[in-house]
């Protein structure tokens, strides 16, 4: 690990808005704030919104500034990136922001039933070879159900045609209510001013994709508690710019 990363990790240990529980730790130390984020950290009853795979926390911090009456928690396992957003939130005295460094595979160990109202998936790794690792897969949807309010909202913003297409099929296969969907966010009309302001927040990686001329895709849908979730069994072309000349197929059964 580089000296810079070590310094960031050491500094984050002093941040009171950061909780570090990677998988190796949570196995042995229970997270006592589960179900008590409102009273023990935020000290209010405002809604809680998660950004999963938050990276540098641009969305977590940006949303927190726009909505001071909502609580935001950025989640990622890469602490050196998270350090940027956590430090900014402290410097700007954003009391409605927290960061959780952990593996998203165990996210349900940190929140109780109905404790979260919305989830943002911003530029998640599409995980083209492993459906179970996709943050919009039914594997993760089942975990989200354990703490997301009934019919809570899930937002996905991505440059990946593969991930967006997969998620669309997943949503349609399970009859999840689509609240909005566009394949070209910055050339779509009809947003109200507040929504456009929210969606104009750009992550570090998003700025790169836009500069390369890639479309930014966005969708939001509801996740009901009821109903069995089934994975879509389809074939989706891989993202050319990510696949590095590998076989450009998902390996699943071809969709007729």
TrEMBL record:
Keyword DNA-binding: no
Binding site for S-adenosyl-L-methionine: 51, 76, 103, 125
Residues involved in substrate binding: 159, 203-206
InterPro entries associated with the record: SAM-dependent_MTases_sf, tRNA_(Gua-N-7)_MeTrfase_Trmb, tRNA_methyltr_TrmB_bact
One Pfam family from the record: Methyltransf_4
Reaction equations catalysed: guanosine(46) in tRNA + S-adenosyl-L-methionine = N(7)-methylguanosine(46) in tRNA + S-adenosyl-L-homocysteine
PROSITE patterns assigned: SAM_MT_TRMB (PS51625)
Main EC class the enzyme belongs to: transferase
Signal peptide: none
Listed pathway(s): tRNA modification; N(7)-methylguanine-tRNA biosynthesis
Keywords assigned by UniProt, alphabetized: Methyltransferase, S-adenosyl-L-methionine, Transferase, tRNA processing
Database matches in HAMAP family: tRNA_methyltr_TrmB (MF_01057)
Membership in a protein family: Belongs to the class I-like SAM-binding methyltransferase superfamily. TrmB family.
Biological role stated in the UniProt entry: Catalyzes the formation of N(7)-methylguanine at position 46 (m7G46) in tRNA.
Protein's recorded name: tRNA (guanine-N(7)-)-methyltransferase
Record organism: Xylanibacter muris
Chain's gene name: trmB
